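Usage example:
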Amino acid sequence: MPRYLLSVWFDEPYDDDVDLSAPETRRQMAQTAELNAEMERAGAWVFVAGLRPAASATVVRAAGGDVSMTDGPYAETKEQMGGLWIIDAADLDDALGWAAKAAAACGRPIEVRPTHA
Amino acid sequence: MRDLAEIFRGEAGRCTATLIRILGDIDLAEDAVAEAFAIAAERWPRTGVPPNPGGWLTTTARNRAVDRLRRESTRTERHLAALRLEPDGMRPDHDPELDALDAFVDVVPDDQLRLMFLCCHPALATDAQVALTLRLLGGLDTPEIAHAFLVSEPTLAQRIVRAKRKLRDNHAPYRVPHAPDLPDRLHAVLTAIYLIYTEGHTATTGDSLTRVDLAREAIRLARVLTELMPDEPEAVGLLALMLLSEARRPARTAPDGSMIRLADQDRTQWDRLLITEGHTLVRACLRRNRPGPFQIQAAIAAVHADAATAAATDWSQIVALYDQLVALRPDAVTALNRAVAVGELRGAAAGLDALDSLDVTLLEDYQPYHAARADLLARAGRGGATAAYDRAIALTANPTERRFLERQRDAAAERT
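Running the assembly step on the lines above writes:
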């Protein structure tokens, strides 16, 4: 069955200071949990995670046996990936259907990207 | 003998649609159909056109594809593909008497419908939807489509390649969408067909005002769609809208190629047959009482077609229809058209009032807005018409349309 990445996008950089008790945030978290359960029941769920801010990232490069590390995300963009699902779906329309539910649950745009295989 | 090119044009969409279902791959299907056409072009001038040319072409394309996959297969994916192709124990026939196989070919009328929904998949950008539709359903080749849309051949070719790759990489399904998705998905198909039509109706750029081929192709596609989905009033509405617009085409341009606007057209030149058919379709779809944007636009075109002279136009009915359309689709362009109709019904000052109440930020770069505003200003005897015409002219890429606006501007300047 085709496998897709559904990534969650934030238009602005975010930090870890989000107020988890804010009603809007609590609602989104509850909706997302509900969606995860629905994906599991449908056999679509493979993996889900929310990501720490891009500022917490480290980029590692290996060239000619040397490993170098740089502080910060790979791409310095305003937009940030804030979370992801990996799902199995029958086809693109099925995947887009899950993405529509995901976008509604977390209140963010979702990028749908097919994997190889 | 019927012109081979004409037969191919008529059969290409159906044939490609069926081959995609059988082969599960757009490129393989296109190659197979091209091969079948080449064989037919070589054979038919000698043997005559078979009784069922579409069936012959589809069977031949299928057999050639299976042969080729067998030939090329080792222990690769292609081998598996060839095995998967075997439908119901049917063996590819090496006998040239392929006509006899017509009965075996599983021609599903839905195939063309599947292909329309695939080409107009919402995951594709509109320009890709349009290009893919013309290529796969219209049987137009890349240079023809590139020429029609005045983009370079490499650009257009890349657009089509990327679209096909995206559909394949994403495992886009080859089926008619399920009921909950159908209205939105159908709307995308209708919009793509209408874009093909409007591009043929008023070429964005280029020296000739109309490009007949695209308009005809759009009408042909809409006919196929309404045959396959007779119960979708919006599809019927789109066909009616295009037929009623097409009916005016002979009157839209003067012998010197300049543009004549609706109010000044010689209505005796309108195509009565198209108008009659359009009217019949408008009545038929409105009776279903499931109004939609294309049906209402068709009804507006029908009211225009009803008027023997521009002065006899029933503007109150047109404004009422625009009110319905604005309620259904509250976009700036619809509101602009409504304001123009109000200007006809209640006078230029009322039209300007309606125009001024719009959110013009979205219309600032829209040529018809400035052209309409210029016309209303001139008719209301207010200042600013010349500047508005200049703005409209600056936004016009079509030379024929630009010359028309320049004449309008000069006439307005003389009156003041």
